[in-house]
Automatic annotation (TrEMBL):
This is Uncharacterized protein.
Length: 307
């Protein structure tokens, strides 16, 4: 079997993380983290023309990616770009299961246009996914999710892919790609909680399928994060459905032990796929910047056999 090499760029605020590695076997060849002068994720999604600071941030991302790629000295098949809310807008809804794919796409695009204020849905690009999880819905309905991208965002990311000769490009919501090794092997529901300084992201999973995404800028303490998690589960009528696990990741994830139970389950730190690989990297990293919970999304992509 040929080894698949991927590059991953994760953008959060002024932080840009880049890694180049293989998925079979899981191996990191190069990785860098850089603080930019402007929010690269906002710049990626902003309408043209960009202010000088945002344009410079995108140029810095490409330079960091290119330098990391040269250090790795491997040919990259796919460039994955991971973005966080609120820069990344996700729309999700139950739609008629008999509707055509084009009709479902139009419905999600109309929702996206309303949320973004776009005058025409045609100004946006949408990556649509069928949700294969038993979320509450009438029998005639099927849940769909879409990541909303301005056309300019894909064009800008494509320039990064061209810079490292990547054959493919995939842009995704970071929360939808961050998985927990032990929970994904369990049947039933589990909840991932991304703990960041300015917001909290929630990813509801069913077995190994990401079912629902949510974020709030109003939760910055362990108690608030648990409160909004309970609200989400109540809204989806899942609070009594037996949540098998609640796991946290991100720069502020270490406070998981201080969070009250959610749906009767005490949150714990995420267990990353192939954690031995990450912990070997972390052990050799004197600065602490490679802490596994900070790189959880990047590592989850490289550890996934279906990325």
């Amino acid at each position: 079997m040929n080894t698949a090499y991927d590059a991953v760029v994760e953008l959060w605020g002024t932080t840009c993380r880049v890694a180049v590695g293989s998925r079979a076997p899981v191996q990191w060849y190069a990785h860098t983290e850089q603080t930019l002068n402007a929010h690269a994720s906002r710049a990626l999604f902003a309408p043209a023309p960009l202010p000088d600071a945002q344009a410079a941030a995108l140029t810095d991302v490409q330079a960091q990616l290119t330098a990391t790629f040269r250090t790795a000295t491997v040919a990259v098949d796919t460039l994955h770009v991971l973005v966080h809310p609120p820069a990344a807008l996700t729309v999700q809804a139950p739609l008629q299961s008999t509707a055509s794919a084009s009709a479902c796409r139009r419905a999600l695009m109309q929702q996206a246009a309303l949320l973004t204020g776009a005058r025409r849905a045609q100004a946006l690009q949408l990556s649509m996914t069928t949700i294969d999880a038993p979320l509450p819905a009438p029998a005639s309905m099927q849940w769909y999710r879409g990541l909303v991208l301005p056309h300019a965002a894909h064009a800008r990311a494509s320039e990064w892919a061209e810079a490292i000769n990547a054959d493919h490009i995939a842009i995704a919501n970071s929360a939808a790609r961050t998985c927990d090794a032990s929970a994904s092997r369990q049947h039933g529901w589990h909840l991932g909680v991304g703990c960041h300084s300015s917001h909290t992201e929630y990813a509801l999973w069913h077995s190994d399928s990401c079912a629902y995404l949510y974020y709030t800028p109003l939760a910055s303490t362990p108690t608030d994060r648990a409160y909004f998690a309970a609200l989400l589960l109540n809204r989806l009528r899942l609070s009594e459905s037996g949540i098998a696990a609640v796991w946290t990741y991100g720069p502020a994830a270490q406070h998981a032990a201080m969070m009250p139970p959610i749906a009767g389950v005490q949150p714990r730190l995420a267990q990353l796929p192939h954690s031995k690989t990450m912990h070997r990297l972390h052990a050799s990293d004197a600065s602490g910047s490679l802490h596994p919970l900070r790189w959880a999304a990047v590592h989850s992509v490289l550890a996934s056999p279906t990325s």
